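Worked example

This section walks through a single chain of length 387. The input is the sequence exactly as stored; nothing has been trimmed or padded.
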Amino acid sequence: MNHRMKIHLFAVCIAALLVESSAQTPSAPSMLPPDTGRAVAVRRAATLTRGVNLSGWFGGWGDYSQEHTSTYVTAADFTAMQAMGIRYVRFPLDPTLLTRGGLLSPKKDELWKRIDDALDLAMNAGLFVDFVVFPRDDYKQQLATQNGVDQFVMLWQILAKHLASRDPDRFFFELMNESEVQDPYRWIGIQSAVTQAIRRIAPQHTILASGAHYDSLPDLIETQPLPDANVIYTFHFYEPYQFTHQGAPWGSVEWNYYKNVPYPATPEQIATLEASIPGDKARYQLYLYGQSGWNAKGISERLAFAAFWGREHDVPVICNEFGAFRDTTPTESRTRYLHDVRTGLEQQGIGWAMWDWSGNFGLVTHSNGIVVLPDRENVGALGLKMP
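Given that input, the structure is written out below as tokens.
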């Protein structure tokens, strides 16, 4: 199916659902008064501590078939999370799961039931849920056009209508994961439009918004708060990538060349590694890592910028992604890094969610449906406990 046909199918699908829901949607936005909204957002942000991402379940990558979603995360996972002291989960939903014929098919109700059953598993385990639109493919690129923005607004109207009955103290609407919108002011405008659309349907729920691009810390401190007080702001922290993404086969080419990169690292340790790295850019990036003071103190001082931005704008801030690539990162260094980021965030009063539960950055693995904890030290590094 070509790009134009995909967009047309999406528009037809969204329009059909809007006709179905329009009679129940108030015509004017509604939101909490500013003082009340901010107090609610601050109170609820305090519950979003010690979280984990459920990537690869209903969003992020891979197979979204019923067979996959019914077995990838199960009640056993949530029992383990609860026993470990995890308080909330970040639940990703790939919009293509809904838009590629799903909402117009005879199995529409079955699709919603799969999503609702998954959310119920988490909430019945006593966990809070950060529900995030987590696109892949060309969905984000459509935000460069007004048509794409309109479709994104309409998508959230549908989601808000379906999810508005969930407890607003325990269920959060995160607008999008890593939008990749290049213009931060455009992204502020898009988030404002979506927030207003959600408020017509769900005036009590707290919304999670972010900076542009890839939701990084620099993206956060470049943005401006939305004209809605009941909002929590999020960022992701994977710095330094030379360490956290060493050996990763995606993203920057130089990551492929890095292996056995320690954390923390002295300039002398990195100089020894540089000799084995092909390519001037890859060596230079690794050199910068060795010279940049990446240790517990340096991480905490960097994270202080997020806390300062929150105080400056009088808004709550959380970090709902951080981690290191488990497949190739030295185990002891990864444990030290997770500990230092987690404690740095807590020192700054910032709630967090690790990336991720059972993927290749994960805290656990699965074996025949059983949750396996591969590294007791990483559980401890996150301030959690063995179940």
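What to look for: The radius of gyration is 21 Å.
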